[in-house]
Amino acid sequence: MLLEKKTENFHRQLFGWLAVFGSTFCFYLATVVIRRSSLSVSIESSYFVFARFLLGFVVVSSTMAIQKQRFQPRNYHYLLGRTIANTVAVFCFYKAVALGSVAEANILNMTYPLFVAIFSWIVLKGQRDLFLVFVVFIAFIGIWLVLAPGDFSTGVGNIWGLISGISAAIAIIYLNVSRRCHDSQTILFVLFGFGAVFMICFFHEDIFLPGKKELFYLLTCSVAGVMGQYLLTYGFLFVTAVEGSIISSSRILLAALLGPFIAGDVPLEFAGWCGAVLIFGANVVLAIRKS
Description:
0% strand, globular
């Protein structure tokens, strides 16, 4: 009986690992699609964001309807804060992919745990830890190496990537607060629904009736993004926060390794690899320290 219980727990944990890693690959795949689309069609980053949120809204609405789950918002401030910050993060992330390297965009987007630590240190006095200050300092050396200051004229996309990491950190903080009074479906409903509204209000000129090629890229990117969101949400139900954070951060190394092969990126130079490893290592330390 005890052996069966251990086997069942292992299977659940294995499912969680695979789900979180699957989400990591899906998020990376979405950026590869954006890069590949630029070779044959002209689609703005804002349209990709709108398509992702629209598909996500359809999926979460359908799921709630099938499960007969009611929409029960309790604190609109938290929900809207999460939505705005996440929308900005995704837009800046996709913009970084369109203007720069897919690998560097993913690496800089994954700096959000560092900024979560910084913001928490500033706001929450009880979480101030000098060791974490040292870890974040090392990570910023990694960020500087990825930004390649010696050739900063080509780093416009990297600036967007860094902004996406900062805004993603704010979105994560809002998410942690929102979870105290909202279920995941309610949070996703507002995120996808209002996110799509925001995008069409501010970028309606970039949105048009797509042809077959445009629809293929928009749909592929959106499916990958929404699948990544759901795999991440449910994967964390079966793994610890440390395990999930470390596996999620593997997108840094995944992007650096696969970039030249499937995204057509120029291989990272030695300094870029050092920066990626420093950021990944800092994320791992922060996840373990937080536990």
